[in-house]
Amino acid sequence: MFGLPRLRRLLTDQYPDGAPPIAHLLDGLARFTGPAWEPEDDVTLVSLQRCPQPAPMTDPKEDGSDHATWRTLAAWSVASEPGNERLTMERVAEVVRGLNLPPKRVERLKTAVAEATLNAMEHGNRFQPHLPVDITVQASHDALAIRIKDCGGGPSGGAAEMPDIEAKLAGRQSPRGWGLFLIEQMVDETRVSADDHEHTLELIMRLGGDADAG
User: Fold this and answer.
1) CA-CA distances (angstroms) from residue 20 to 33, 49, 79, 144?
2) Domain range for residue 1?
3) 110 contacts: CB under 8 Å, gap ≥ 6
4) pLDDT digits over 9-34, tens only?
5) Contacts of 101 (CB under 8 A, 6+ apart)
6) CA 214 to chain centre
7) What is d(CA 131, CA 129) in angstroms, rounded to the nearest whole number?
């Protein structure tokens, strides 16, 4: 197998500054396989561009500037029952319709919202229907924020661990743990907070500019 370690080396030690990453990876794949190679499946490459982070979210009461003024578009609660994650993602898509997000960005947002809501119902509320998951959708002039809160409480944890397929197959990494990593790839920023009574995941997506061109 080409393998993740070889991929990392191509993008670090051997990667020339300024070269197109897709072309560089294809060259590396061609050297690895040789001219007689016939693929058994599709080859998919994704190029990522690091963009500036949006300004920190600030409660309007704390800062009167336009940039920090967030308006609540909708707020509701759902019972912790399987299937409500799909209802939640569709409602979020409807709420943000007027923000003119490109369709691909909306689909990414829906994926993140559904996964985050399912995690809140399963890991936070243990699928106890009487425990709600609270969803709040807010927007400023340049960003969108969705807060998903459950009744889990406890430590807020840290950044999602980078899933490593080879490590998972070898038993060095838990077979679980893809959820938060997936969510982080779908939006521009995630923020996690918790106290003894509740856990909140905040999904932030920028509005306008090149970030929404795809």
Assistant:
1) 20, 11, 47, 31
2) 1-48
3) 89, 90, 92, 93
4) 888 876 666 667 888 888 888 888 88
5) 109, 144, 205, 207, 212
6) 16
7) 5
Domain match, 84 and 35 both: no
**Count: domains in the chain:** 2
Asked if residue 90 lies in contact with residue 144, where contact means CB atoms within 8 angstroms, the answer is no
Question: Could you count the other beta carbons within 10 Å of the beta carbon of residue 151?
Answer: 18
Quote the tokens at residue 42. 């599709």
Query: Is 70 within 8 Å of 59 (Cβ atoms)?
Result: yes
Most confident of 19-28, 156-165, 193-202: 193-202
pLDDT tens digit sequence for 181-194: 889 889 999 999 98
207 DSSP 8-state letter: -
In the predicted model, what is the mean pLDDT of the chain? Answer: 80
pLDDT digits (tens, 9 = 90+) for 79-132: 999 999 999 999 999 999 999 899 999 999 999 999 999 999 998 999 999 999
Q: How far apart are CA 38 and CA 19, in angstroms?
A: 26
Q: Is residue 169 part of a domain?
A: yes
